[in-house]
Structures are given as C-alpha cells and as structure tokens.
From TrEMBL, chains A, B:
The keyword Endoplasmic reticulum does not apply. Transmembrane segments: none annotated. NCBIfam families: F420_cofD. GO terms for molecular function: LPPG:FO 2-phospho-L-lactate transferase activity; magnesium ion binding. The gene is cofD. InterPro entries: CofD (IPR002882), CofD-like_dom_sf (IPR038136), FbiA/CofD (IPR010115). This is 2-phospho-L-lactate transferase. It comes from the Bacteria. Keywords: Magnesium, Transferase. It holds the Pfam family CofD. Coiled coil: none annotated.
Amino acid sequence: MRIVSLAGGIGGARFLRGLRAAAPDADITVIGNTGDDITLFGLRVCPDLDTVMYTLGGGINEEQGWGRDKESHAVKEELAAYGVEPQWFGLGDRDFATHIVRTQMLDAGYPLSAVTEALCARWEPGVRLIPMSDDRTETHVVITDERGRRAVHFQEWWVRLRASLPAEQIILVGADEARPAPGVLQAIADADAVILPPSNPVVSIGTILQIKGIREALEGKTVVGVSPIVGGAPVRGMADACLTAIGVDTTAQAVLELYGSPLINGWLVAEEDAGVALDGVRVQARPLIMHDVESAAAIARAALDLAAEIARTPAGTPAAPAPEDAR
Amino acid sequence: MRIVSLAGGIGGARFLRGLRAAAPDADITVIGNTGDDITLFGLRVCPDLDTVMYTLGGGINEEQGWGRDKESHAVKEELAAYGVEPQWFGLGDRDFATHIVRTQMLDAGYPLSAVTEALCARWEPGVRLIPMSDDRTETHVVITDERGRRAVHFQEWWVRLRASLPAEQIILVGADEARPAPGVLQAIADADAVILPPSNPVVSIGTILQIKGIREALEGKTVVGVSPIVGGAPVRGMADACLTAIGVDTTAQAVLELYGSPLINGWLVAEEDAGVALDGVRVQARPLIMHDVESAAAIARAALDLAAEIARTPAGTPAAPAPEDAR
C-alpha cells in the first residue's frame, strides 16, 4: 500500500509515528513543509523537516516535541556572548550539526530534497521524506508593532512573539515560482491514500497546498484529513492565531470547509465535534488526542480505514445496499 | 611605547601574555599568522588568531594550549554521526560559535581584519590583533604517501599526520597576491620595537614574512627575536619537521641565520645555546622556558631590554666606552 502524507512539525511528526505503526508494511511518502525554514547565523534551518526526521528517527526531544534529545546549548550561549542575533530561536549543539551539514551541501549545489535524503540516511525514519519544494519559499507574517506595519519571518512571529500580535496577513514568499520537489507529484499520483495529519491547516498543510500543482494532484485522490481542532481549540500549538488571520473560525467544521471538496474526501473529527458535515466528504468521529504512539496509531488506523471505505465507494456512488435491500 | 609582535599559535600566544605583563602600558600590535587557516564544514577556522585571542582573552584551554576552556564536543560528535569529514580536526562546541560568527561576517563581505576586531571586542585581549593579510593564503605541504606525491593542507599534515611524513616542500598558496592587512605596515612603521616570539620560524613567522612588504618594513626597525629552539630541539611543537623541509638545522644558530641580518638585530637564546653569533646581531643568553605567565614575562622583559639597548647603540656603532676609557 502506498500512502502520502503532508506534514508540518510536532503534530504531524507524532501522527506520522502512529501512521508508521498502523501501516508497518506501507510505503509512506511524507511531503514536508519548508515555509517555516529560516537562515540563522548563515545556516539553513528546516524546523519541520527536522522535527519529522528526528521524531521518526528516534532523536527527538520527546518532552519538547522539537529539537534533539540529550541536547546541550554551548554554541547558542557563545553566540550570545558575541552579541549576535537572534537569540530567541532555540538551537541546540546537536541540532547545529544538522544545519551545518545541510548548509554545506546546499552551498555545494545539492537541492534540498537531496540534502534531506542524505540526512535521512543517518536517521532511517522509515518513510520517504521529501520537502514540498527545492525552491526557497518563506512564510512571512504581517504585524503592526512599535515599528509600524511590517512583515516578519514566520518564526519571528511564532517563536519570538509567540503569536501575541495578530497576524494581519500570512504570505508565502516565493510561492508563485516554487515547483514541487522531484518525486512529490509522482508519489501523489501513485498513492492509494493521502492522509492530512492534524498539522496546522494554514502555515503547514496550507503552505504545502500553495505549491503549484500539489493541490491539483491531490484532487483526484482519496484524501482523508484529521482535524487539528478539537472542541473549538487547537489540539496543540497556536493554529487559532493562524486561522483568525485568514478569517476562518477555530472549529473542525471551518477547517473542513477551508480544505473543502473536492480536495478532501474524508474527515476525522473528535467525538465532541460529531455533527460536522460537508457535501462530498465522509466525516467520522473518533478520539483524536495523541497521548502516545499507540493513540496516534489508532487515529492513523481510523484514517486509513476511512480512506479504504471511500476508495471502495467513492463520493457520488450510492452507499452499497445492505443485503436485505439487494433483492 | 609601541611594540609590534608577529605571532603563530600556542608558543606565540603564551609569549604575548608575558609581553603584555612585562609592558602593561605599551601599545602592542600583534600581526597574526593566517597561513594555517582552513575551511571546515563550510566554516572558516583561523587557529592562530583564535589561539592568541583566547589565550589573551582568558578563554583558552590552558592544558591543551588551543581551543576553548570548559569545552564540549556535541557538534563534532554529531557531524561524525552524519559521516562527514574531516573528523581529525578538534573543534569544540564553544569554538564552533567563533567560526560561525566569523564565517557569517566574511560571507557578508567584511574583511578578516574587521571580523577579527569584532571578535576581539568580546575577548578584550589587551593587544590589537591584526591578521597578516585580508587576502586568503593557505600553507600547503608536499608529501608522498600511498596516493603518491601530493600537496595537502598544512593542518592535514600537522594535525592528521602529526608531521610524521617528511614535508618535501612547504608552500604558501596565495602569497604572491596577498597584501598586508590594513594597519600592518603602519604599526610596524610606528613601532619602537618589534619582537619575534618563539613561534615556528617556518610556518608561523616565516609565513608572515612572505607577505609582500612586511619583511621590507621590518628591516628598518629594531627587531629582537626569541629562539624557538633550545639545545637543538623545539621548545614545543614540531618546528624541527618544518625546518628540515627547508634545509635548516634545528639549532638556535641556524634559525638566527634563517631570519638573518638586516631583518633581525637582537636574538635571545637559551643559556645552553650561548655562543650563537651573527654579524650585526646582539645575542644574549637567558632562560627561555615558559612555565607560566611570570617566566614568559621575564623573557619578554629581556627581549624589550635588548631592543632598548640596540635602539640606544645601533649595530655598527661602537659600544659606548666605559668611563675610564672616556678620558
């Protein structure tokens, strides 16, 4: 079985660990968000790709959800002692090595997809991880602060400001020119099912969907999404701040409508959100909180089951008649 | 009083700490060797500049003589886990931060002299540290190994091979085009005394002397050297391997002749090397082993005293007659 998943950071990575456990024999391709990428101290940092790679590769800081386990911070402390900025982004020593290797390969001319593959050769994440694009894009957020109305890098809004100022606009710089990385469209074309994890629908999944051709490729497929909103609040993170920026309510219903049909065919919501509905989409209510790998696997299994059901009886097809009615 | 000193790594840095203690009110300019510089993992590493900066700035690993105190090695271990080379060069986490800041500034277009000044703003070494040149030069060593006769970077010969293969030739790549960094020639012109520490006469001091204009500028000045060879062996390091490469004996006499007159006016040798002599050079025998800052300061004081004596009665001038003979 061939599965494609789009993924952001922590929520996506934890879901993917469940997906891998739920479908151990499947061939899983993960298309990772690179809109959050940032160059710090001359080094290219890809937070979402790394979170997926470390989480699936067994090198993640479990408690934090991002960064390396058993991490130290000597480099960051020394950079601060030199007075260089920014000091608000948390880079650990072990993590620095990843960015150093990545930057050296990028500077040598390798595309990000090849670099990611090289890094994953060490981590063996058990999935094929491809960045959404080899072309550089960056999510910028328009805010108004004491310096006036201006665009800042997504990470500055998210990490430094903790989304405390309203996002007036969220822009993926470079989206118009960016092409899907090699393998992305083919993986989608070959997929038996596409799963959208409970990642941020605006700055993670929404960003990937802005890359030319990806949304169109998905529209012909069986696509099941897992709601990142449970009972009117994000399962984790600050997705509400991103949804507000684009005028979307923080509800499982509103996010479903944001993705919309024909992109999405199936939608998993939490039990308290039963009642969510959209034409052409099969909605199922399931426990959606990921406490551990087992609960994440249960959600993934539900998503795969729903995808299989949709594949057997596509939308528009009348549901298979019950044996009694078959006569 | 204005003093200029040329310096390599450990020996030079330890001597300079003594010089600063011996002449606390002097205006000291240090011209640092950059022939040992190397780019590792995309980062520009300047081992001699950093050894001087860390030693005088109180951040050196005292026992080792190079690198940072209280150092950890997470980045290096992770780079090795990714399988990237080289793994033979010892870069610590704290040290990495220096190279990251330097590389970022160089990439932004700042010359190495400006970068060095910026790094020293943190370390406050108490001297003005200038690289010999802002132009890139690199010392390469011709060796013959299982891959045949070839040139390797100095650090590969020195650190990886520990100078175990004979250096058939030592070449400063880029020497023909390199110009002295801003301030170098002016500092020499303004100096009351120039002191050559017991640094490596071939790949440290000898390298600096290859930069166009530096030797010529020195020849008009009072220049006192401290022999790096005591009793036929280097005080520390593997200077003998470098001297052999250029056909010079490992003796205080041979190194004096290598520097030669008119470059050098005064030469401090160890007591066991009394008898060393060269026309036009005043030679004095003194204890030359640097156990600590105090012993290094005593050597520096002897060098400054010899320089003052030479300045009062330049070579060629008959020694001032004793009072009895004055009648």
